[in-house]
Give the backbone structure.
Amino acid sequence: MTTTLAVAMMALHDDLAQSLFAHQVALLDRDFTRAASTLQRFRTQLLAHVDDEERHVLPHYERLGGDATDAPTRLFRGEHQNLHKFVDEFVQRVEALRQRPDDAALLELLDRQATFKNLLLHHDLRERNMLYPFLAARLPAAQQAAILQARTWSGG
Ligand SMILES: [Fe+2]
Ligand SMILES: [Fe+2]
């Protein structure tokens, strides 16, 4: 049985959530060295996933008429940019905490991450309910499989 594009791509969001969780547990432990390394792992996975979608998924969506829906391509790209900016901000903040642990700064970081997680949730829902079902209905199975093959990050 071949895995569908939607199932395989959405499964990566679960991997991302697990990586972010590991990072936040390190923050709770006030282990800022581990927080930095787990954040780096999350950042690498997130950016690889975003890059795969922008190179291999969104061009099909655009070509097949996705821009005429309530979720145009620019919305996905804009959210990707926003997620990227947040994660880069977290890298700076964790580095600052590593240099000088500070409770107020830690709480501020967790607040920022709550905002980020909200954005991530909305992005997840938009892809789950709009992007991937749209492609599932229009993209031949062979092309869906080709996208999965072309990915630089396929989990783990
Ligand atoms: Fe995604
Ligand atoms: Fe995405």
In short: The chain has a mean pLDDT of 96. The pocket of fe (ii) ion (ligand 1) is lined by residues 9, 13, 49, 53, 127 (CB under 6 Å). The radius of gyration is 17 Å.
